[in-house]
Amino acid sequence: MKTAIITGGTSGIGLATAKKFLDENFNCVIVGRHENKFDKIKSQLRGNFKFIAADVADIESCRRVVSETSKTFGGVDTLVNCAGIYVEGAISFVTEKIFNDVINTNVKGTFFMCQAAIDELVKSRGTIVNVASDAACHGNYFCALYAASKGAVVAFTKSLALELASFPIRVNCVAPADIDTPLTTAQLKNSGESVDDLAKIYPLGRIGKADEVAEAIYFLASGSSTFITGEILNVNGGIC
What is the pTM of this model? Predict the structure, then answer.
């Protein structure tokens, strides 16, 4: 049985991804900062899973996640870097603390989770799927810091795919647009917009669902995409 590590796995896209991998008979290690959040969602999960409380912004925590996963399930086949912080607002709003929080989770966490998992992924000839954003590809209004962090994830994905291809470890990325998650709900509450307002800008006439992104992530991790690496898969309802 294969094993996947999914960071940010207690809500939104991460939770949907954990459910998908469990449905596909993977062992799943779900990583999150708060065990109480996991306690609220664990009844939704079916299969072999383990929760590890960790902050991916801490390098030693990244190493501990991989070590505990290997001890529990015997190795790592897939790493999904879904942990992320979203912040919007004008550049003048961004403090050094906000900057560090976003970069440390979105960039540093992704980088060092990959670094920590490489030895195990070499053994399994495994896969990495990073989660970026449509903001990484074209920028969004009042979203410069978040877009910069996710743009770094895109560039990192492409570079790491080249570095690890000979092992062979495949490294890909999904770039979702607006997805119906608790994060989006909070964003809309702050902005005063509605889901219907967001839906109007999408050619498909709606925002996405977390399980639709999870399907894309699983595809990139699975044997259905064995000649795909360094790819940025947009899950964006046709928006440019």
Answer: 0.96
